């Protein structure tokens, strides 16, 4: 799940690691295939493919798997599958806003599956734009903390055109306007090599507080159902959960 940076560790919960890893490889491979099909198979000439490969490598996807995805996307059989990017928006349990990004070859199937997940969780799938006003669509570039000091990264990021930097003991998280993402990413990559991950994300600007473990678990059940869907690439929420409840989760 992606959302408030404070909760980014949710997606790495121990009990779901193996299952999520397999699905993650599949979803990252699909993005590589689509990127290769839409542009040149050379990542140096295709920014979307370069980013897809970077993100796949950051999740330890084997090089052979990446190579096969590129070949499938750029090969003769690529026309057999036509994927498109689709965004779904709605409210989960307890009024939590949810944005779902999908890559699908069947809009009707994806919409039905995602609507069913919302309904089962006590939420409602809405129209596009229904909750987007509660989020900012921005570029996000993440480096390991050891590539630079907090002050150095802050200065370098602002000089590259970023709007903010959030640093902790593990990472530097650089935020920029979506229109500036390519330029900021390229400038920082030249200076510090490839980031840990990078992309356009939805960051909540209006948080929805969840005060009990029971409510938090109901929200996470929806996130789990959505992430289990093969068409879903990313899930964002505006959930705001205390550290105490997070530890119990």
Would you tell me the overall average pLDDT? 88
Extract low-pLDDT stretches: 1-9
Helix content percent band: 40-55%
Q: What fraction of residues sit in β-strands? A: 15-25%
Q: Rg from C-alpha positions?
A: 18 Å
Number of strands: 10
Give the overall form. globular
Helix/strand structural class: alpha+beta
- Main sheet summary: 4 strands, antiparallel
Instruction: Output the strand order for the largest sheet.
Output: 3-1-2-9
Number of helices: 8
- How far apart the termini lie comes to 14 Å
Instruction: Spell the H/E element sequence.
Output: HHHEEHEEHEEHEEHEEH
Could you walk me through the main structural features you see in this protein, from its secondary elements to its overall organization?
This protein is globular. With 249 residues, the protein is an alpha+beta fold. The relative contact order is 0.17. The protein has helices at residues 17-38, 47-58, 63-74, 107-120, 150-160, 181-192, 213-228, 243-248, and strands at residues 84-91, 97-104, 124-126, 135-144, 164-167, 171-177, 197-204, 208-210, 232-237, 239-241. The two termini are 14 Å apart. It contains 8 helices and 10 strands. The chain is 42% helix and 24% strand. Strand 1 (84-91) and strand 2 form a beta hairpin.
Brief overview:
The protein is of the alpha+beta class.
What is the topological layout?
Elements (H helix, E strand, L loop, with lengths): L16 H22 L8 H12 L4 H12 L9 E8 L5 E8 L2 H14 L3 E3 L8 E10 L5 H11 L3 E4 L3 E7 L3 H12 L4 E8 L3 E3 L2 H16 L3 E6 L1 E3 L1 H6 L1
């Amino acid at each position: 799940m992606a959302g408030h940076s404070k909760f980014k560790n949710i997606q790495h919960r121990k009990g779901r690691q193996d299952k999520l890893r397999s699905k993650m490889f599949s979803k990252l491979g699909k993005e590589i295939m689509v990127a290769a099909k839409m542009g040149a198979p050379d990542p140096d000439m295709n920014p979307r493919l370069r980013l897809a490969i970077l993100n796949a490598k950051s999740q330890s996807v084997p090089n052979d798997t990446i190579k096969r995805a590129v070949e499938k996307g750029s090969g003769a059989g690529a026309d057999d599958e036509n994927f498109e990017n689709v965004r779904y928006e709605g409210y989960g349990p307890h009024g939590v806003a949810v944005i779902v990004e999908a890559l699908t070859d069947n809009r009707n199937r994806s919409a039905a599956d995602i609507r069913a997940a919302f309904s089962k969780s006590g939420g409602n799938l809405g129209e596009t734009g229904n909750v987007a006003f509660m989020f900012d669509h921005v570029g996000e570039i993440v480096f390991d903390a050891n590539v630079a000091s907090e002050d150095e990264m802050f200065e370098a990021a602002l000089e590259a055109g970023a709007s903010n930097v959030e640093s902790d003991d593990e990472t530097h998280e650089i935020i920029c306007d979506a229109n500036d993402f390519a330029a900021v990413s390229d400038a920082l990559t030249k200076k510090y090599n490839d980031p840990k991950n990078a992309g356009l994300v939805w960051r909540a600007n209006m948080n929805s507080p969840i005060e009990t473990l029971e409510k938090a678990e109901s929200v996470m059940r929806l996130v789990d159902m959505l992430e289990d869907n093969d068409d879903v690439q990313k899930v964002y929420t505006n959930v705001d959960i205390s550290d105490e409840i997070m530890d119990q989760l």
